[in-house]
Amino acid sequence: MTNLHRHAPLRVALVGLGTVGGGVIRLLETNGDLIARRAGCPIQIVAISARDRNKDRGVDLSPYEWVDDMTTLPGRDDIDVVVELIGGADGPALTLARQCLSAGKPFVTANKAMLAHHGLDLAALAEKAGIALKYEAAVAGGIPVIKGMREGAAANEISRVYGILNGTCNYILTTMEKEGRGFDEVLKEAQELGYAEADPSFDIDGVDAAHKLTILASLAFGTELDFDGVAVTGIRDVIAADIAEAAALGYRIRLVGMAENGPGGLFQRVHPMLVPLDHPLAHVDGSLNAVVAEGNFVGRLFFQGRGAGDGPTASAVVADLIDVARDEYGDAFAMPVSALSQQPPADAGARVGRAYLRFKVQDRPGVLAEIAAATRDAGVSIESMIQRGASVDGGVLMAIVTHAGEERCVLNTLERLAGSESLLQTPMVMHILD
């Protein structure tokens, strides 16, 4: 039901005053009149809560009531909706979410980790209470991909959803690509510029992208959330030579989250991939995010924009608040929790595709023959092989691109080479986006 005649303000409690929380305050201050016209009422922050009351956040907090104990907010009659921006899969954020939804209080969050791990339980609570659980800001920042998937593409059977879901990784990879520098050097620069956290593992190891992919897969396919079913590989082991070889072959390397649903089960993977230059994802640079969904009637949908930062993420949070003000909301994952199907993980080894394999090997006779024999015996057909000259430590880089074949054959190749004295480091495998 849409409430077009609401005039009383929507009263908001804002929990978490980091980058995004400050952005929400600035956005409501800057665009308040326009937002009120679109929402049918003013949207007003009436209470705020965070860990440190004295921290300078660059915004004036004096108009708002400071609440030290956020667990009091769900029971307050003078608050219509709670916005949670503190993060974390468990702990205070999850406690607050459960309290709000159990008390019949609409809840808006940007917390993808919490949703990936506990989204079904929270959706069931919201469904039971007949209230909104909104999370547009949890995936791809300011890009309205949740609304696009849940509403705009609702009539379609989605066969595949994939994309660039982490701006930190994309910034690192595209900077390495443009400047020819190594991973460690670019990561350090990204940290200095604020694109990467002091502890960047959550981003560069692919966990953040896996949380987002879990949510997108559920929305796209009507399946239960299954974070544990996501195979995750980050970008730590991508080297400048990989990027150079990919470019020579007509590809760019991107960290891609991909999900497919079919008779064989639910496939979910976050992995560095070689993306053809003629694919839109190859041209998503810097800290941008992009999501591709393929529907049986709508065809390919492409969403691109800024995936993080105060402005884009605050935009998504306030868009959710506008929906709450309008009483426009449906089931959190596009259908009742009871209607979501439980799919087993698909056998990745049965997937057919091409792959890029990079080896660092000893500079001695017989090594090439050893690798070729391993690929032959594993059933891998080689499309091309590139060998570079010796490096300063005596190692030689060798790159192989395979013909299309089952992924289990590539894994079998690596198993056959495991423990070989010819290999100076663990081989790197990246699949090629078809």
UniProtKB/TrEMBL annotation:
Gene Ontology MF term list: homoserine dehydrogenase activity; NADP binding
Domain called ACT: residue spans: 356-431
Pathway(s): Amino-acid biosynthesis; L-threonine biosynthesis; L-threonine from L-aspartate: step 3/5; Amino-acid biosynthesis; L-methionine biosynthesis via de novo pathway; L-homoserine from L-aspartate: step 3/3
Enzyme Commission number(s) of this protein: 1.1.1.3
Keyword tags: Amino-acid biosynthesis, Methionine biosynthesis, NADP, Oxidoreductase, Threonine biosynthesis
Binding site for NADPH: 112
Binding, L-homoserine: 197
Active site feature: 212
One of the GO BP terms on file: threonine biosynthetic process
UniProt superkingdom: Bacteria
Family affiliation: Belongs to the homoserine dehydrogenase family.
PANTHER family according to UniProt: HOMOSERINE DEHYDROGENASE (PTHR43331)
NCBIfam families to which the protein is assigned, alphabetical: PRK06349.1
Protein's name in the database: Homoserine dehydrogenase
Organism: Sphingobium herbicidovorans (strain ATCC 700291 / DSM 11019 / CCUG 56400 / KCTC 2939 / LMG 18315 / NBRC 16415 / MH) (Sphingomonas herbicidovorans)
